[in-house]
Write a structure and sequence with these properties.
heterodimer; A: about 450 residues; mainly alpha; globular; B: FAD/NAD(P)-binding domain; 3 domains; eight-stranded mixed β-sheet; about 30% helix; about 25% strand
């Protein structure tokens, strides 16, 4: 554990010190080394659990998310290199410091057992993300986007703070490992429901649940590419991880409480996928499709069966990689045409045929094509939801159908339409961009061979 | 005692003393006033208001736009309107129109002081020699006929463009009669309703005319006449703004482009460039902003060649593609309004004489307007829009008086001057892309026909941008490539 945490924390002073000529390349190689080392977390020996201490632990739920986080850092740096090129040196350093701080905080969030430390880190990740969105975003709307992003999460997590403190004072400890073994209260009092609500609301907003999702399209669209990547891939999964952890503590469920959330999330799948069909802005489309996939994850986490939890984990990792890849692809076309409108940046297969391969791959996995892990995750979730109640298949089935429709629409519009006359000369694809796509796609494809790693 | 000197002293000290007249102070009223002030301030801060801690200057253009249209005349707004009308989903394309002539607060210039649109005579005709011109005018006439359906904004009064369908009457002498007949044939093939008249028929139809030297005349029967350009511009503008087009007041001073240098097989170097940012300078201040853009449409009218030079067109060595300039220059044309009490009546069309002088009825009070295009040697100075009255006395009046004898006694009431965005190469518009600059579209060089062709051109450019090709009217003949190849697309019927 320490072999990863210490280097990540020390990436911050590294970004201060490296001389400018090798700033990006050395930072990149350091973060890649950390990413490779983080793969050791995926080793789950059956006999003795490996990474357990007082405050921190890495178990089968945290490990895949942690690995994804560490994997994403070099990818973020690679993706941002182009738009950071013209910035003055201190801004480049600031950017790298911000994302390394974010990385360290995320590692702590995922690996801690103490609920209060978890909350502190959860909130602390908001700050670097906010700075990245509002400072390096492209449009004037990024200020509104930052405000929405910050205050949605902040307002909903205040009850979480109170709930965690209450649990801490009541049980005199706040370790998730021990708390889940304490005899749960069987009373269905109003305060019990309030406690349940307080604990889970923050994560619902983070996921996001359909009714509380307004911050997501704004934040994703206005953020620079690294911000979009980390938002889509990791920060959304913070919510899922939180729900999984909290429900082990808050078990058992008062039934009438989680009906609204389940219904909202299932309905949200259908609604947000339908919005995607009418989107003209490419990044907005990918943002709404994130909401749609995360709706599935919320409903799975809420019904808490083993298959559902497995499906949720699978889908979280798969969606993290896919969504991040889609954002990177949208960014490559945005950098060349300076327009996120799909209708103005179409027919790209003629100009960038190799990038079309990656577009195809990302869109196929977004659609949950077999045998990708997206499909396995969705399949497990849909099956367990069907087991829980037969009518959910209508909503999830419709959601899958509409997802396929808008994904194919996105692919065909950006790649296959008539190439507009004003896109004749473009800078060719850099090796860096292809490397970025491979590093996204390789884990996706390799995990098909061994999904039990997640 | 407290009069006289003391009063004078107090009066002198008044600026410092500020002695206010006594009044009954009502503490409750003061309190409510303070409360109101507080409420105003609170309303400004609460969500839902647009107060921000970092105030963005209201007049700056947005930082990013998909299409930036340089020039807010009738062509620019027409392109903006058609882009919004043809976009696949509402809000798909982000359009900004940058126009520098808008500031009401500016001391000397009123709005649109120099734009060709509002200084135009406002005529529309189909009597051209090129089929594309005829098709464009026909489309525009249809557009004007249905203008309320196209441009109606909910809550606003219906659009009335005051179309006078009086038609154009072209007179031809011996030399030009054959050309006139050929043109009429082309016009009829395109669907324009034009009739040919002999001098006898002319005399019967228009008894006020002196038919000396006239061998043939062509008269447009439908879809020709004149209308109010200001109404069209405002209608297009308000409709486009209601559909989400941003209007920005500022002058485009430069483009920031990405250039790729390539070498051809012969070893010649060609620079392909792509405009990334449009730098806009705010009026009457030193503020400037840059708009990150995907496409730029050059609809700057008489000043289009300056805008084209900002993109590097015409700045290369003279015998290369990048050295071909956009040959659009401003040419000043005068229009005179006079009153003639016994002039021709309501049926007076837009008369275009064999000499090139033109005149038409203006309003219903016996006023007429007209002018003539000066010859090459007499081209007036384009520095300002001052009118030369001698020009009327010497060049316009004699010719018109010869043709319409009642114009021998008239009184000039007013006059103005406006610019033609004159294409010095072949007097035809330049529409379409440039081969070297990837994302610059031209919609300029109309040489006096910009107003009547604006709706059609707007639709053509919108089709080019959104669909990649011309769908309704094929304007391939007006592309920039003809300037490079040197092939003229001559329009012979330029007034």
């Amino acid at each position: 554990m320490l072999k990863i945490i210490l280097p990540t924390i020390l990436l911050t002073p590294t970004a201060f010190i490296i001389k400018p000529s090798i700033l990006f390349s050395s930072y990149l190689s350091f973060s890649l080394l950390i990413a490779l080392t983080s793969l050791t977390w995926l080793n789950y020996p059956a006999t003795t659990p490996q990474y357990f201490t007082d405050l921190m632990m890495v178990d089968r739920i945290s490990a895949p998310l942690l690995t994804l986080t560490c994997w994403l850092l070099p990818l973020m740096v690679m993706a941002s290199q182009n738009h950071l090129n013209q910035e003055p040196l201190h801004r480049k350093r600031t950017f790298l410091i911000l994302i390394s701080i974010l990385q360290a905080l995320l590692i702590f969030t995922f690996s801690t057992t103490n609920l209060i430390l978890f909350y502190i880190m959860f909130e602390a990740t908001l700050i670097p993300t906010l700075v990245v969105i509002t400072r390096w975003g492209n449009q004037a709307e990024r200020l509104t986007a930052g405000t929405y992003f910050l205050f949605y999460t902040l307002a909903s997590s205040l009850p979480l703070l109170i709930a965690i403190l209450f649990i801490n004072f009541k049980n005199n400890l706040s370790s998730t490992m021990v708390l889940q073994m304490i005899q749960p209260q069987m009373m269905e009092t109003a305060s019990n429901s309030l406690l349940w609500l307080a604990c889970l609301l923050a994560f619902m907003v983070k996921m996001p649940l359909y009714g509380l999702h307004l911050w997501l399209p704004k934040a994703h669209v206005e953020a620079p590419i690294a911000g979009s990547m980390v938002l889509a891939a990791i920060l959304l999964k913070l919510g899922g991880y939180g729900i999984i952890r909290m429900t082990t503590i808050l078990h058992p469920q008062p039934l009438n409480l989680f009906y609204p959330f389940l219904i909202l999330s299932l309905w949200g799948i259908v609604m947000t996928s339908s919005i995607c069909m009418r989107q003209t802005d490419l990044k907005s489309l990918i943002a709404y499709s994130s909401v749609s996939h995360m709706g599935l994850v919320i409903s799975a986490c809420l019904i808490q069966t083993p298959w559902a939890n497995t499906g949720a984990m699978l889908l979280m990792i798969a969606h993290g990689l896919t969504s991040s890849m889609l954002f990177c692809l949208a960014n490559t076309s945005y950098e060349r045409t300076h327009s996120r409108t799909m209708v103005l940046a179409r027919g790209l297969q003629l100009v960038f045929p190799l990038m079309t391969t990656w577009w195809l791959l990302a869109n196929l996995t977004n659609m949950a094509l077999p045998p990708s892990i997206n499909l396995m995750g969705e399949l497990l979730i849909i099956t367990s939801l069907f087991n829980w109640s037969m009518t959910t298949i209508i909503l999830t089935g419709t959601g899958t159908l509409i997802t396929a429709i808008y994904t194919l629409n996105m692919f065909l519009t950006t790649q296959r339409n008539k190439l507009p006359n004003h896109l004749m000369t473009n800078t060719p694809n850099h090796t860096r961009e292809h490397l970025l796509m491979i590093l996204h796609a390789a884990p996706l494809l390799l995990l098909i061979l061994n999904p039990s790693l997640i | 005692m407290f009069g006289g000197r003391t009063a004078l002293l107090l009066r002198g000290l008044r600026p410092w003393l500020r002695v206010e007249p006594r009044r009954h102070r009502d503490s409750f009223r003061d309190f409510t006033k303070e409360f109101d002030k507080f409420r105003q301030k609170a309303k400004g801060i609460l969500p839902g208001s647009d107060w921000t801690p970092l105030p963005i200057s209201r007049d700056l253009p947005p930082e990013q736009a998909d299409v930036v249209i340089v020039g807010g005349g009738v062509v620019g707004w027409s392109v903006a309107y058609w882009l919004k009308r043809n976009e696949p989903q509402s809000g798909a394309v982000r359009v900004v129109v940058v126009e520098r002539d808008l500031s009401v607060s500016c001391l000397s210039s009123a709005r649109y002081a120099k734009a060709s649109t509002v200084l135009s005579v406002g005529g529309i005709r189909q009597q051209y020699s090129m089929p594309e011109n005829i098709q464009m005018s026909l489309f525009s006439a249809n557009f004007l006929r249905l203008i309320d359906e196209y441009l109606h904004v909910i809550g606003q009064p219906p659009v009335d463009v005051q179309f006078n369908p009086s038609g154009y009457l072209f007179l031809a002498s011996d030399e030009t009669a054959a050309i006139l007949e050929e043109n009429v044939k082309v016009q009829r093939m395109e669907g324009a309703k034009v009739s040919l008249l002999s001098p006898a028929e002319l005399k019967k139809k228009y008894p006020w005319m002196n038919t000396d030297g006239v061998v043939l005349a062509s008269c447009g029967l439908e879809n020709e006449g004149w209308f109010d350009p200001w109404t069209l511009l405002n209608a297009l503008r308000s409709k486009a703004i209601s559909m989400g087009v941003y209007q920005s007041c500022g002058e485009v001073t430069s483009f920031t482009s990405d250039t790729t240098e390539m070498v051809t097989q012969d070893g010649e170097q060609i620079d392909f460039s792509r405009i990334k940012y449009v730098n806009v300078h705010m009026p009457n201040s030193t503020e400037y902003a840059s708009i990150q853009c995907s496409l730029v449409v050059n609809a700057a009218g008489a000043w289009s060649s300056k805008v084209a030079e900002m993109a590097g067109i015409g700045t290369g060595p003279p015998d290369s593609i990048s050295g071909v300039k956009l040959p659009v220059e401003p040419k000043k044309r005068y229009v005179y309004v006079w009153h003639c009490p016994d002039g021709p009546g309501l049926g007076f069309p837009m008369l275009i004489d064999t000499t090139g002088a033109y005149c038409r009825r203006e309003g219903l009070g016996g006023n007429y307007l007209g002018g003539i295009s000066p010859t090459e040697e007499e081209e007036p100075d384009i520095q300002d829009l001052e009118v030369d009255h001698e020009f009327f006395q010497e060049k316009v009046w004699p010719k018109l008086a010869h043709r319409v004898p009642c114009f021998e006694s008239l009184k000039v009431k007013s006059s103005w001057a406006g610019y033609y965005d004159y294409n010095t190469f072949d007097q035809s518009p330049v529409i379409g892309l440039h081969p070297l600059v990837d994302n610059l579209y031209f919609a300029t060089g109309f040489s006096g026909h910009g107003l009547q062709q604006a709706p059609a051109v707007g639709q053509a450019i919108a089709e080019l941008i959104l669909d990649g090709k011309y769908k309704t009217i094929d304007l391939e003949a007006f592309s920039f490539n003809r300037l490079i190849k040197g092939e003229k697309a001559l329009e012979r019927n330029v007034i």
